[in-house]
Amino acid sequence: MMKVAVLGASGKLGSVISDAVDAADDLDLVARIGSRDSLETLVETGAEAVVDVTTPAAVMENLRFCIERGIHAIVGTTGFDEERLATLRGWLDEHPRVGVVIAPNFSIGALLMMQLAAKAAPFFESVEIVELHHPTKADAPSGTAQRTAALIADARREAGVGPVPDATTTALEGARGAEIDGIHVHALRIRGLVAHQEVVLGGVGETLTIRHDSLDRASFAPGALAGLRAVPAHPGLTIGLEHLLGL
Ligand code: NAP
């Protein structure tokens, strides 16, 4: 049984993941850590791995503590830029048996949607992304849509596919969405929705639509648990849960 602690355990994501770890037969939840708890609890309880779902302000200090003590980490917290990743690589170089996984997306369905879209992209002339979210979301387009566009653009480039066909010469501003690496991305904000995305691909006489729907935060737990089970076999820094899941 791997001993696991959750950092940010009383948060929206942390509470779901703590309960899932607690319910798993092969994982032992030894600590639920909040902002007022001491990280020493990790040592006292013998935690072998943590899931960090805290805040961009807290996560680096948490990871430094864990890496220095040989504790693996699955990190759902956002806000990692190149500078932060380089800092993590430096810490991990000094503790080469520790694994840290930066997982911007815990949803296995969303990860598959991105991988399938990239796989399909070279086979179709046209591709556009429509992301749909609740109207309280502050950023547009979503991080998932931006990442999907980048993966699609890479796959098309690698296969030598030219630009998507588009005869538009006049348009109201925004009518064709945002353009990320040559891929159009449209953002809808609709009351009642949670988090959804469609990738619409088109070739002569056919279209293919790949759609993912997040209906509940519970969808983030299986990916986090799969990451925990796999991380001891993946020392060093891994970016993206897909690399641990064999996607
Ligand atoms: P949230 O509800 O605000 O929860 C954050 C929690 O972190 C709070 O409960 C807070 O505890 C705790 N915290 C703050 N500083 C801490 C510290 N130093 N040590 C331990 N705990 C600390 O936020 P959320 O919606 O759960 O999201 C958490 C993070 O996950 C965000 O970065 C978010 O963008 C990201 N996220 C990732 C995914 C994914 O799939 N990877 C999905 C959704 C969200 P207190 O209440 O005690 O202050």
UniProtKB/TrEMBL annotation:
Homotetramer. Residues 109-245 form the Dihydrodipicolinate reductase C-terminal domain. Residues 2-106 form the Dihydrodipicolinate reductase N-terminal domain. It catalyses: (S)-2,3,4,5-tetrahydrodipicolinate + NAD(+) + H2O = (2S,4S)-4-hydroxy-2,3,4,5-tetrahydrodipicolinate + NADH + H(+); (S)-2,3,4,5-tetrahydrodipicolinate + NADP(+) + H2O = (2S,4S)-4-hydroxy-2,3,4,5-tetrahydrodipicolinate + NADPH + H(+). Belongs to the DapB family. NADP(+) binds at residue 32. NAD(+) binds at residues 8-13, 76-78, 103-106. It is found in: Cytoplasm. Transmembrane segments: none annotated. Catalyzes the conversion of 4-hydroxy-tetrahydrodipicolinate (HTPA) to tetrahydrodipicolinate. Pathway: Amino-acid biosynthesis; L-lysine biosynthesis via DAP pathway; (S)-tetrahydrodipicolinate from L-aspartate: step 4/4. The active site is at 133 (proton donor/acceptor), 137 (proton donor). (S)-2,3,4,5-tetrahydrodipicolinate binds at residues 134, 143-144. It comes from Nocardioides eburneus. CDD domains: DHDPR_N. InterPro entries: DapB_C, DapB_N, DapB_N_CS, DHDPR_bac, NAD(P)-bd_dom_sf. One of its GO terms (molecular function) is 4-hydroxy-tetrahydrodipicolinate reductase. Keywords: Amino-acid biosynthesis, Cytoplasm, Diaminopimelate biosynthesis, Lysine biosynthesis, NAD, NADP, Oxidoreductase. This is 4-hydroxy-tetrahydrodipicolinate reductase. Its EC number is 1.17.1.8. Its main location: cytoplasm.
